Amino acid sequence: MHPGRIVAALSLVAGLSACSDSIAQTQLPNGVSVHLDQSRIQRQGREVFLRVENDTRHDITIERFVLTSPRLEDVAWSGAEEIGSTYETDLEFTMPVGRCGADIDATVRFTYRVDGGELQESTTTADDRYGNAAAFADRDCAEITLEDAADVVVGEPTVSGTGRASVLRLPVTMTPTGDRSDVRFGGFGSTVLFRQTADSPADVDVPLGPGDPPARLDMQVVPARCDPHALAEDKVGRLFPVTVLADDVGTDASYFLPLTRDQKLAFFDFFRSSCGLE
Length: 278
What we know:
The protein is an alpha+beta fold. The protein has helices at 3-21, 132-149, 228-232, 261-275; strands spanning 24-25, 32-37, 47-54, 60-69, 72-83, 87-94, 106-114, 120-126, 150-154, 158-160, 167-176, 184-188, 194-196, 206-207, 215-223, 241-245, 254-256. It folds into 2 domains: 25-130, Immunoglobulins (Immunoglobulin-like), CATH 2.60.40.10; 138-275. It is built from 4 helices and 17 strands.
């Protein structure tokens, strides 16, 4: 790095440190609670939120937060979000790629004002009350682990039979890379719209280590329900879990099978034709 840039970078760090030192360090006011979560509508992306609930009878304005977790890269958010007394707000951010591990154990450092007063800084924990953040990190862990162990290719879906007797088959090939000896494929999962048939590899233990042959699998599904509202309001019906078994992956950890737009449309078309909704 150019010497001038080093000096500038050090000056910036020193300035930020001095700024932080000038902010009053205090306990978060009683009545403020913090939760890390992801809504159902966000499941197909990486948007999550930090929900801050304010029951202090005072207005609180959040200007910055830094979220840390042993399973995530640090998240830094800045803005000016006012939370009135007895209200709550969701501070959205993009979830960083999760690491393998156990609990999220998230800690949040807030910079904020109470009733428009001086800046204050407090550190607190953010609970993962529905387990959605841990599940997110588990999905990343499972996906990265499987990608290390095998090249995964998803083929084109085909339909056999007609009406309620029809079945959609999706070929999936997992070719071991030889880089991991502890990884196995554990099966495909069902969704709110589709269930795995008895012939689908839904509960298996297929090794994907050095010397193992490519695993050629046919995921086979039928509609789990046939009411038209389920299809019209669906957000997660094509998010098929792929269970990954490995030493550093949590029990029953899975990620969502990657599907192209055309593949997703094929599942919807199959649902309509199988259920007679066309």
